[in-house]
Amino acid sequence: MDFELTEEQKDIQKAAREFAQGEFDKEKILEWEQTHTFPREIWKKACKLGFIGLHFPEEYGGQDYGITENMLMVEEFCRQDSGVGIALSLADFSSEVILRFGTPEQKKKYILPVTQGEFISAGAYTEPDHGSDITLLSTTAKKEGDSFLINGTKTFITNGGLADFFIVLCQCDSIVVPSYRGQCTLIVEKGIHGFEATEIVPKMGIRMTSTAELSFSDVRVPASNLIGKENAGFYQVLEFFDESRIEIAAQALGIAQGAFDRALDYAKKREQFKKKLVEFQITQHKLADMATRIEVARLITYKAAWNFDQRGVDPKLTSMAKWFTARTAVEVADEAIQMFGGYGYLTEYEVERFYRDAKITEIYEGTREIQKNTIASALIGKLK
Ligand SMILES: Cc1cc2nc3c(=O)[nH]c(=O)nc-3n(C[C@H](O)[C@H](O)[C@H](O)COP(=O)(O)OP(=O)(O)OC[C@H]3O[C@@H](n4cnc5c(N)ncnc54)[C@H](O)[C@@H]3O)c2cc1C
Q: Tell me: the pLDDT tens digits for 278-291?
Protein backbone atom coordinates (compact mmCIF):
# COMPACT_ATOMS: atom_id res chain seq x y z
CA MET A 1 0.00 0.00 0.00
CA ASP A 2 1.29 3.46 -0.90
CA PHE A 3 -0.50 6.61 0.23
CA GLU A 4 2.01 9.02 -1.36
CA LEU A 5 1.26 11.11 -4.43
CA THR A 6 3.91 10.84 -7.14
CA GLU A 7 6.31 13.77 -7.62
CA GLU A 8 4.44 14.68 -10.81
CA GLN A 9 1.11 14.69 -8.97
CA LYS A 10 2.58 16.89 -6.25
CA ASP A 11 3.79 19.29 -8.96
CA ILE A 12 0.28 19.46 -10.47
CA GLN A 13 -1.23 20.05 -7.03
CA LYS A 14 1.29 22.83 -6.36
CA ALA A 15 0.75 24.43 -9.77
CA ALA A 16 -3.05 24.42 -9.27
CA ARG A 17 -2.68 25.89 -5.77
CA GLU A 18 -0.35 28.64 -6.97
CA PHE A 19 -2.59 29.45 -9.92
CA ALA A 20 -5.66 29.72 -7.67
CA GLN A 21 -3.83 31.80 -5.06
CA GLY A 22 -2.49 34.14 -7.73
CA GLU A 23 -5.57 34.53 -9.91
CA PHE A 24 -8.68 34.24 -7.71
CA ASP A 25 -9.10 37.87 -6.78
CA LYS A 26 -11.35 38.36 -3.71
CA GLU A 27 -12.89 41.66 -4.80
CA LYS A 28 -13.77 40.36 -8.24
CA ILE A 29 -15.18 37.16 -6.78
CA LEU A 30 -17.65 39.12 -4.64
CA GLU A 31 -18.70 41.11 -7.69
CA TRP A 32 -19.10 38.02 -9.93
CA GLU A 33 -21.01 36.23 -7.18
CA GLN A 34 -23.44 39.13 -6.83
CA THR A 35 -23.93 39.58 -10.57
CA HIS A 36 -24.06 35.85 -11.37
CA THR A 37 -21.08 36.19 -13.70
CA PHE A 38 -18.90 33.37 -14.99
CA PRO A 39 -15.19 34.06 -14.28
CA ARG A 40 -14.29 34.20 -17.96
CA GLU A 41 -10.83 35.77 -17.64
CA ILE A 42 -9.65 33.14 -15.17
CA TRP A 43 -11.16 30.35 -17.26
CA LYS A 44 -9.26 31.57 -20.33
CA LYS A 45 -5.98 31.60 -18.37
CA ALA A 46 -6.71 28.17 -16.89
CA CYS A 47 -7.24 26.81 -20.41
CA LYS A 48 -4.04 28.42 -21.65
CA LEU A 49 -2.07 26.79 -18.85
CA GLY A 50 -3.60 23.37 -19.59
CA PHE A 51 -5.73 23.01 -16.44
CA ILE A 52 -9.06 22.57 -18.24
CA GLY A 53 -9.19 19.09 -19.70
CA LEU A 54 -6.06 18.01 -17.83
CA HIS A 55 -7.38 14.45 -18.08
CA PHE A 56 -8.15 14.63 -21.81
CA PRO A 57 -5.83 13.10 -24.45
CA GLU A 58 -3.05 15.32 -25.80
CA GLU A 59 -4.49 14.87 -29.27
CA TYR A 60 -7.48 16.96 -28.16
CA GLY A 61 -5.55 19.60 -26.29
CA GLY A 62 -5.42 17.80 -22.94
CA GLN A 63 -2.44 16.76 -20.84
CA ASP A 64 -3.07 12.99 -20.94
CA TYR A 65 -3.38 12.79 -17.15
CA GLY A 66 -5.92 10.72 -15.25
CA ILE A 67 -8.92 11.47 -13.08
CA THR A 68 -6.56 11.56 -10.08
CA GLU A 69 -4.63 14.56 -11.39
CA ASN A 70 -7.86 16.30 -12.41
CA MET A 71 -9.21 15.67 -8.91
CA LEU A 72 -6.12 17.25 -7.32
CA MET A 73 -6.58 20.35 -9.45
CA VAL A 74 -10.32 20.66 -8.70
CA GLU A 75 -9.65 20.22 -4.97
CA GLU A 76 -7.09 23.04 -4.97
CA PHE A 77 -9.31 25.39 -7.00
CA CYS A 78 -12.32 24.82 -4.71
CA ARG A 79 -10.17 25.15 -1.61
CA GLN A 80 -9.12 28.62 -2.70
CA ASP A 81 -12.65 29.59 -3.69
CA SER A 82 -15.73 27.38 -3.88
CA GLY A 83 -17.51 29.52 -6.49
CA VAL A 84 -14.68 30.00 -8.97
CA GLY A 85 -13.45 26.46 -8.34
CA ILE A 86 -16.78 24.91 -9.28
CA ALA A 87 -17.24 27.20 -12.31
CA LEU A 88 -13.83 26.14 -13.68
CA SER A 89 -14.32 22.51 -12.79
CA LEU A 90 -17.59 22.40 -14.75
CA ALA A 91 -16.47 24.44 -17.79
CA ASP A 92 -15.80 21.18 -19.66
CA PHE A 93 -18.81 19.40 -18.13
CA SER A 94 -19.91 16.27 -19.99
CA SER A 95 -17.24 16.56 -22.69
CA GLU A 96 -16.17 13.13 -21.47
CA VAL A 97 -19.26 11.61 -23.13
CA ILE A 98 -17.91 12.69 -26.52
CA LEU A 99 -14.38 11.66 -25.57
CA ARG A 100 -15.49 8.18 -24.63
CA PHE A 101 -18.12 7.46 -27.24
CA GLY A 102 -17.78 10.08 -29.98
CA THR A 103 -16.15 9.89 -33.40
CA PRO A 104 -12.69 11.40 -34.05
CA GLU A 105 -14.46 14.15 -36.05
CA GLN A 106 -16.72 15.02 -33.09
CA LYS A 107 -13.75 15.07 -30.72
CA LYS A 108 -11.79 17.37 -33.01
CA LYS A 109 -14.74 19.68 -33.59
CA TYR A 110 -15.94 19.95 -29.97
CA ILE A 111 -13.24 18.82 -27.52
CA LEU A 112 -10.26 20.67 -28.94
CA PRO A 113 -12.00 24.08 -28.57
CA VAL A 114 -12.95 23.14 -24.98
CA THR A 115 -9.34 22.70 -23.93
CA GLN A 116 -8.29 25.75 -25.95
CA GLY A 117 -10.70 28.05 -24.10
CA GLU A 118 -13.00 28.63 -27.07
CA PHE A 119 -15.94 26.42 -26.12
CA ILE A 120 -17.84 25.72 -22.90
CA SER A 121 -19.76 22.44 -22.78
CA ALA A 122 -22.91 21.27 -21.02
CA GLY A 123 -24.71 18.00 -20.34
CA ALA A 124 -28.52 18.06 -20.47
CA TYR A 125 -30.05 15.04 -18.75
CA THR A 126 -32.55 16.33 -16.16
CA GLU A 127 -36.10 17.25 -17.17
CA PRO A 128 -38.79 19.07 -15.17
CA ASP A 129 -40.56 15.76 -14.45
CA HIS A 130 -37.57 13.43 -14.58
CA GLY A 131 -34.65 14.18 -12.25
CA SER A 132 -33.32 11.28 -10.22
CA ASP A 133 -35.09 8.88 -12.56
CA ILE A 134 -33.80 9.48 -16.07
CA THR A 135 -34.88 6.03 -17.21
CA LEU A 136 -38.03 7.89 -18.29
CA LEU A 137 -37.67 10.89 -20.60
CA SER A 138 -40.12 13.25 -22.26
CA THR A 139 -37.58 14.80 -24.62
CA THR A 140 -37.79 12.97 -27.92
CA ALA A 141 -35.45 12.71 -30.90
CA LYS A 142 -37.18 11.41 -34.00
CA LYS A 143 -35.00 10.14 -36.80
CA GLU A 144 -36.01 11.66 -40.12
CA GLY A 145 -33.73 10.69 -42.99
CA ASP A 146 -30.32 12.06 -42.27
CA SER A 147 -31.31 14.09 -39.22
CA PHE A 148 -32.94 13.98 -35.79
CA LEU A 149 -35.83 16.21 -34.78
CA ILE A 150 -35.68 17.09 -31.06
CA ASN A 151 -38.63 18.25 -28.94
CA GLY A 152 -38.80 18.69 -25.19
CA THR A 153 -37.48 20.55 -22.16
CA LYS A 154 -34.40 20.05 -19.99
CA THR A 155 -33.94 21.86 -16.73
CA PHE A 156 -31.23 22.82 -14.19
CA ILE A 157 -28.58 22.66 -16.91
CA THR A 158 -25.18 23.89 -15.73
CA ASN A 159 -23.61 26.28 -18.27
CA GLY A 160 -27.04 26.36 -19.96
CA GLY A 161 -26.79 30.07 -20.76
CA LEU A 162 -23.10 29.95 -21.66
CA ALA A 163 -22.37 26.70 -23.43
CA ASP A 164 -21.40 26.49 -27.07
CA PHE A 165 -22.71 22.93 -27.34
CA PHE A 166 -24.86 20.55 -25.33
CA ILE A 167 -24.89 16.79 -24.93
CA VAL A 168 -28.62 16.05 -24.79
CA LEU A 169 -30.13 12.78 -23.62
CA CYS A 170 -33.26 12.00 -25.65
CA GLN A 171 -35.78 9.24 -26.14
CA CYS A 172 -35.19 8.14 -29.72
CA ASP A 173 -37.15 4.89 -29.66
CA SER A 174 -40.55 5.28 -27.99
CA ILE A 175 -41.61 1.65 -28.39
CA VAL A 176 -38.78 -0.32 -26.81
CA VAL A 177 -39.31 -1.69 -23.26
CA PRO A 178 -37.78 -0.78 -20.87
CA SER A 179 -37.73 2.72 -22.29
CA TYR A 180 -34.13 3.54 -21.28
CA ARG A 181 -32.98 1.07 -23.89
CA GLY A 182 -34.27 3.48 -26.49
CA GLN A 183 -32.34 6.58 -25.43
CA CYS A 184 -29.59 8.38 -27.35
CA THR A 185 -27.22 11.28 -26.80
CA LEU A 186 -27.07 14.04 -29.40
CA ILE A 187 -24.87 17.11 -29.75
CA VAL A 188 -26.82 20.36 -30.07
CA GLU A 189 -25.01 23.61 -30.83
CA LYS A 190 -26.13 26.88 -29.29
CA GLY A 191 -28.10 29.26 -31.48
CA ILE A 192 -29.69 26.50 -33.57
CA HIS A 193 -33.26 27.20 -34.75
CA GLY A 194 -35.90 26.13 -32.20
CA PHE A 195 -33.51 26.05 -29.25
CA GLU A 196 -33.79 28.42 -26.32
CA ALA A 197 -31.94 28.68 -22.99
CA THR A 198 -33.60 30.56 -20.11
CA GLU A 199 -31.53 31.36 -17.05
CA ILE A 200 -32.89 30.11 -13.71
CA VAL A 201 -32.10 32.81 -11.13
CA PRO A 202 -31.64 33.53 -8.30
CA LYS A 203 -30.25 30.39 -6.70
CA MET A 204 -28.69 29.45 -3.36
CA GLY A 205 -25.09 28.94 -4.48
CA ILE A 206 -22.69 28.31 -7.36
CA ARG A 207 -23.69 31.73 -8.62
CA MET A 208 -20.73 32.02 -10.97
CA THR A 209 -22.13 29.17 -13.05
CA SER A 210 -25.12 29.53 -15.31
CA THR A 211 -28.09 27.23 -14.58
CA ALA A 212 -30.75 27.22 -17.29
CA GLU A 213 -33.85 25.60 -18.63
CA LEU A 214 -33.46 24.48 -22.25
CA SER A 215 -36.35 24.20 -24.63
CA PHE A 216 -36.22 22.29 -27.90
CA SER A 217 -38.96 22.98 -30.38
CA ASP A 218 -38.46 21.06 -33.63
CA VAL A 219 -34.68 21.38 -33.32
CA ARG A 220 -33.14 19.60 -36.27
CA VAL A 221 -29.60 18.24 -35.94
CA PRO A 222 -27.69 16.13 -38.48
CA ALA A 223 -27.49 12.38 -37.80
CA SER A 224 -23.71 12.86 -37.55
CA ASN A 225 -24.40 14.59 -34.17
CA LEU A 226 -25.40 11.26 -32.65
CA ILE A 227 -22.81 10.18 -30.05
CA GLY A 228 -21.99 6.50 -30.41
CA LYS A 229 -24.80 4.06 -31.06
CA GLU A 230 -28.47 4.95 -31.34
CA ASN A 231 -29.91 3.21 -28.28
CA ALA A 232 -26.88 3.47 -26.00
CA GLY A 233 -27.49 6.93 -24.50
CA PHE A 234 -28.61 5.86 -21.04
CA TYR A 235 -25.60 3.56 -20.58
CA GLN A 236 -23.19 6.25 -21.83
CA VAL A 237 -24.56 8.73 -19.30
CA LEU A 238 -24.33 6.23 -16.44
CA GLU A 239 -20.69 5.57 -17.34
CA PHE A 240 -20.05 9.29 -17.45
CA PHE A 241 -21.57 9.71 -13.97
CA ASP A 242 -19.12 7.13 -12.61
CA GLU A 243 -16.34 9.46 -13.70
CA SER A 244 -17.94 12.81 -13.00
CA ARG A 245 -19.09 11.94 -9.48
CA ILE A 246 -15.41 11.70 -8.51
CA GLU A 247 -14.97 15.25 -9.73
CA ILE A 248 -17.96 16.39 -7.63
CA ALA A 249 -16.38 14.65 -4.62
CA ALA A 250 -13.19 16.61 -5.38
CA GLN A 251 -15.19 19.86 -5.42
CA ALA A 252 -16.69 18.97 -2.03
CA LEU A 253 -13.29 18.04 -0.64
CA GLY A 254 -11.78 21.37 -1.66
CA ILE A 255 -14.74 23.24 -0.21
CA ALA A 256 -14.44 21.37 3.10
CA GLN A 257 -10.70 22.08 3.28
CA GLY A 258 -11.17 25.73 2.33
CA ALA A 259 -13.82 26.25 5.03
CA PHE A 260 -11.61 24.51 7.58
CA ASP A 261 -8.55 26.63 6.68
CA ARG A 262 -10.55 29.80 7.24
CA ALA A 263 -12.07 28.58 10.51
CA LEU A 264 -8.68 27.57 11.92
CA ASP A 265 -7.13 30.86 10.95
CA TYR A 266 -10.00 32.80 12.53
CA ALA A 267 -10.01 30.75 15.73
CA LYS A 268 -6.30 31.51 16.20
CA LYS A 269 -6.95 35.25 16.00
CA ARG A 270 -10.37 35.86 17.58
CA GLU A 271 -10.45 36.56 21.31
CA GLN A 272 -13.40 36.25 23.69
CA PHE A 273 -13.32 36.07 27.51
CA LYS A 274 -9.65 37.16 27.21
CA LYS A 275 -8.73 33.97 25.39
CA LYS A 276 -8.19 33.01 21.78
CA LEU A 277 -10.99 30.74 20.50
CA VAL A 278 -8.43 27.97 19.90
CA GLU A 279 -7.72 27.93 23.62
CA PHE A 280 -11.22 26.65 24.40
CA GLN A 281 -11.26 22.89 24.44
CA ILE A 282 -14.58 22.81 22.63
CA THR A 283 -13.00 24.71 19.72
CA GLN A 284 -10.06 22.31 19.71
CA HIS A 285 -12.44 19.36 19.55
CA LYS A 286 -14.44 20.95 16.78
CA LEU A 287 -11.27 21.48 14.76
CA ALA A 288 -10.16 17.90 15.43
CA ASP A 289 -13.55 16.63 14.34
CA MET A 290 -13.58 18.70 11.13
CA ALA A 291 -10.00 17.71 10.22
CA THR A 292 -10.72 14.02 10.82
CA ARG A 293 -13.83 14.09 8.63
CA ILE A 294 -11.89 15.83 5.86
CA GLU A 295 -9.10 13.26 6.08
CA VAL A 296 -11.57 10.38 5.76
CA ALA A 297 -13.30 12.15 2.83
CA ARG A 298 -9.92 12.68 1.19
CA LEU A 299 -8.94 9.04 1.56
CA ILE A 300 -12.14 7.76 -0.05
CA THR A 301 -12.11 10.37 -2.83
CA TYR A 302 -8.47 9.70 -3.68
CA LYS A 303 -9.14 5.96 -3.60
CA ALA A 304 -12.11 6.34 -5.96
CA ALA A 305 -9.96 8.37 -8.37
CA TRP A 306 -7.02 5.99 -8.13
CA ASN A 307 -9.32 3.02 -8.64
CA PHE A 308 -10.88 4.64 -11.71
CA ASP A 309 -7.46 5.27 -13.26
CA GLN A 310 -6.01 1.87 -12.38
CA ARG A 311 -8.96 -0.47 -12.71
CA GLY A 312 -11.89 1.35 -14.24
CA VAL A 313 -15.41 1.98 -13.09
CA ASP A 314 -16.61 0.99 -9.59
CA PRO A 315 -20.01 2.67 -9.06
CA LYS A 316 -20.19 1.62 -5.39
CA LEU A 317 -16.89 3.26 -4.48
CA THR A 318 -17.62 6.36 -6.56
CA SER A 319 -21.02 6.82 -4.89
CA MET A 320 -19.47 6.31 -1.45
CA ALA A 321 -16.91 9.04 -2.20
CA LYS A 322 -19.54 11.38 -3.60
CA TRP A 323 -22.12 11.25 -0.82
CA PHE A 324 -19.66 11.09 2.06
CA THR A 325 -17.46 13.93 0.84
CA ALA A 326 -20.46 16.11 -0.09
CA ARG A 327 -21.96 15.58 3.39
CA THR A 328 -18.57 16.38 4.93
CA ALA A 329 -18.38 19.64 2.97
CA VAL A 330 -21.82 20.74 4.19
CA GLU A 331 -21.06 19.80 7.81
CA VAL A 332 -17.59 21.35 7.86
CA ALA A 333 -18.77 24.58 6.22
CA ASP A 334 -21.65 24.75 8.72
CA GLU A 335 -19.25 24.35 11.63
CA ALA A 336 -16.92 26.95 10.10
CA ILE A 337 -19.74 29.52 10.07
CA GLN A 338 -20.48 28.65 13.71
CA MET A 339 -16.85 29.23 14.63
CA PHE A 340 -16.92 32.67 13.02
CA GLY A 341 -20.06 33.56 15.01
CA GLY A 342 -21.97 36.49 13.50
CA TYR A 343 -19.11 37.29 11.13
CA GLY A 344 -19.59 33.89 9.52
CA TYR A 345 -23.00 35.04 8.39
CA LEU A 346 -21.49 37.92 6.41
CA THR A 347 -20.51 37.63 2.76
CA GLU A 348 -17.13 39.24 3.40
CA TYR A 349 -15.89 36.32 5.51
CA GLU A 350 -16.44 33.79 2.69
CA VAL A 351 -17.51 30.76 4.75
CA GLU A 352 -21.20 31.46 4.10
CA ARG A 353 -20.45 31.11 0.37
CA PHE A 354 -18.59 27.86 0.97
CA TYR A 355 -21.66 26.60 2.84
CA ARG A 356 -24.05 27.59 0.06
CA ASP A 357 -21.77 26.12 -2.60
CA ALA A 358 -21.20 22.91 -0.63
CA LYS A 359 -24.90 22.07 -0.68
CA ILE A 360 -25.11 21.53 -4.43
CA THR A 361 -22.57 18.70 -4.22
CA GLU A 362 -25.24 16.72 -2.36
CA ILE A 363 -27.76 17.28 -5.14
CA TYR A 364 -26.31 17.35 -8.65
CA GLU A 365 -24.91 14.30 -10.42
CA GLY A 366 -27.28 12.23 -8.31
CA THR A 367 -28.56 13.16 -4.86
CA ARG A 368 -27.22 11.69 -1.62
CA GLU A 369 -30.16 9.27 -1.60
CA ILE A 370 -29.43 8.09 -5.14
CA GLN A 371 -25.76 7.47 -4.22
CA LYS A 372 -26.93 5.35 -1.29
CA ASN A 373 -29.29 3.43 -3.58
CA THR A 374 -26.32 2.64 -5.85
CA ILE A 375 -24.20 1.47 -2.91
CA ALA A 376 -27.03 -0.61 -1.48
CA SER A 377 -27.81 -2.30 -4.76
CA ALA A 378 -24.13 -3.25 -5.16
CA LEU A 379 -24.11 -4.65 -1.62
CA ILE A 380 -27.42 -6.47 -1.74
CA GLY A 381 -27.67 -7.46 -5.39
CA LYS A 382 -30.95 -7.77 -7.26
CA LEU A 383 -34.05 -8.19 -5.09
CA LYS A 384 -36.76 -10.43 -6.50
C1 LIG B 1 -27.57 24.10 -9.59
C2 LIG B 1 -27.89 22.82 -10.27
C3 LIG B 1 -27.14 22.41 -11.34
C4 LIG B 1 -27.47 21.22 -12.03
N5 LIG B 1 -26.77 20.87 -13.16
C6 LIG B 1 -27.25 19.88 -13.95
C7 LIG B 1 -26.67 19.62 -15.24
O8 LIG B 1 -25.70 20.27 -15.65
N9 LIG B 1 -27.23 18.66 -16.00
C10 LIG B 1 -28.32 17.94 -15.62
O11 LIG B 1 -28.78 17.10 -16.39
N12 LIG B 1 -28.87 18.14 -14.38
C13 LIG B 1 -28.36 19.08 -13.56
N14 LIG B 1 -28.94 19.32 -12.33
C15 LIG B 1 -30.09 18.52 -11.92
C16 LIG B 1 -29.78 17.56 -10.78
O17 LIG B 1 -28.95 16.53 -11.23
C18 LIG B 1 -31.13 17.09 -10.22
O19 LIG B 1 -31.71 18.20 -9.56
C20 LIG B 1 -30.99 15.90 -9.30
O21 LIG B 1 -30.57 14.77 -10.01
C22 LIG B 1 -32.31 15.59 -8.57
O23 LIG B 1 -33.39 15.58 -9.44
P24 LIG B 1 -34.71 16.43 -9.06
O25 LIG B 1 -34.27 17.80 -8.74
O26 LIG B 1 -35.70 16.26 -10.12
O27 LIG B 1 -35.22 15.78 -7.70
P28 LIG B 1 -36.14 14.48 -7.56
O29 LIG B 1 -35.60 13.39 -8.41
O30 LIG B 1 -37.54 14.86 -7.73
O31 LIG B 1 -35.86 14.09 -6.03
C32 LIG B 1 -36.50 14.74 -4.93
C33 LIG B 1 -36.05 14.06 -3.65
O34 LIG B 1 -36.46 12.68 -3.68
C35 LIG B 1 -35.34 11.84 -3.49
N36 LIG B 1 -35.51 10.62 -4.28
C37 LIG B 1 -35.82 10.50 -5.60
N38 LIG B 1 -35.83 9.23 -5.97
C39 LIG B 1 -35.52 8.49 -4.88
C40 LIG B 1 -35.35 7.10 -4.63
N41 LIG B 1 -35.49 6.19 -5.59
N42 LIG B 1 -35.00 6.71 -3.39
C43 LIG B 1 -34.82 7.61 -2.41
N44 LIG B 1 -34.96 8.94 -2.57
C45 LIG B 1 -35.29 9.37 -3.80
C46 LIG B 1 -34.14 12.65 -3.98
O47 LIG B 1 -32.94 12.17 -3.40
C48 LIG B 1 -34.52 14.04 -3.49
O49 LIG B 1 -34.19 14.15 -2.13
C50 LIG B 1 -28.56 20.45 -11.59
C51 LIG B 1 -29.30 20.85 -10.48
C52 LIG B 1 -29.00 22.03 -9.83
C53 LIG B 1 -29.84 22.45 -8.66
A: 999 999 999 999 99
**64-101: b (≥16 Cβ within 10 Å) or e:** ebebbbbbbbbbbbbbbbbbbbbbbbbbbbbbbbbbeb
Question: pLDDT averaged over the chain?
Answer: 97
CB 232 within 8 A of CB 240: no
- Evaluate whether 371 touches 322 at the Cβ level (below 8 Å): yes
For ligand 1, whether the C-beta of 323 sits within 6 Å is no
Please tell me the total number of residues recorded for the chain in this structure.
Answer: 384
Q: pTM to 2 decimals?
A: 0.98
367 lines ligand 1 (CB under 6 A): yes
What's the one-letter identity of residue 231? N
Strands 211-222, 147-158: pairing is antiparallel
Beta-carbon count within 10 A of 146 CB: 8
Task: Assess whether 352 carries a catalytic annotation.
Answer: no
Is the minimum distance from the CB of 326 to ligand 1 under 6 angstroms? no
Closest C-alpha among 180, 184, 189, 198 to residue 219: 189
CA–centroid distance, residue 363 to ligand 1 (Å):
6
Residue 177: partners with Cβ closer than 8 Å, 6 or more residues away: none
